[in-house]
Design brief:
Length: 247
């Protein structure tokens, strides 16, 4: 029995918060309809942050800037290139010195469990080789082009980030090393992207890749990496985007 007065009934559920108003005329024992008289207010919950799919994560700085004709004269373009050369100390190959500002770090002791950093290569084609018995072997040629260490993050610092907590949740944490390749004109990139290389003193790189290494394999930011980083006879892991025969 609901009586002759109006009653407010509040309904709480996991995803819905609603309020129903019962009128005296509709509350008779022979005609009680609660469903049609229910006014529900839906409350949406915050979704989790989506993992990266086909677009960069939101914390990455914008890389390429919008290109437009700046109407620069030939003299102005030469002046801009001169300023860039003075800022990044662009010298001829015979006079170029090491990009390291300080002395190199002390090398760690190698162990069978040591994980070293990788390099960024460019696939330039396939070349055949022959063994002594005449067996023909197709070899993929990879060019190590202008690689430098951009940043080193210790295991303790990387574990403070959300990415480090998820990746090494129940594992031994590793250090993170960012390697860049192919230095290009800084006018092609945004100011935020160029600031990533400001502390190293190098020109902006076209490619950036993250490698996980052990602390004893740490390299100082600015260290150049060449094909001599590997030795003949070593087994390496190669990954890349390719079609058809691939690697």
């Amino acid at each position: 029995m609901l009586g002759g007065l109006s009653h407010n009934v509040t309904v709480f559920t996991k995803h819905l918060i609603g309020q129903m108003v019962l009128h005296p005329q509709l509350c008779a024992p022979s005609s009680i309809l609660l469903g049609p008289m229910c006014n529900a207010l839906q409350v949406r919950e915050m979704s989790r942050v989506k993992r990266r799919k086909t677009h960069p994560p939101f914390w990455h700085p914008l890389k390429n800037r919008q290109r437009f004709d700046e109407l620069l004269t030939k003299e102005n373009k030469e002046f801009v290139q001169e300023i860039i050369s003075d800022k990044y100390r662009i010298l001829p190959a015979t006079q170029s010195d090491s990009p390291l500002k300080d002395a190199p770090w002390v090398k760690g002791e190698w162990t069978p469990k040591t994980i070293r950093t990788g390099v960024i290569c460019k696939n330039i084609g396939v070349h055949p080789l022959w063994e002594k018995d005449g067996t023909r072997i197709l070899c993929t040629l990879l060019q190590v082009l202008d690689n430098n260490v951009i940043r080193y993050i210790s295991p303790e610092d990387y574990m403070k980030t959300e990415q480090g907590k998820k990746k090494f949740k129940n594992k031994r944490p590793l250090a993170c090393m960012v390697v860049g390749a192919e230095a290009v004109d800084p006018q092609l990139f945004t100011k935020q992207y160029c600031q990533l290389f400001q502390h190293v003193g190098l020109m902006p790189k076209k490619r950036l890749v993250r490698f996980f290494v052990t602390p004893e394999a740490a390299l100082q930011p600015g260290t150049p990496l060449t094909a001599a980083h590997f030795r003949a006879g070593e087994y390496i892991d190669v990954a890349g985007k390719s079609i058809d025969y691939g690697f």
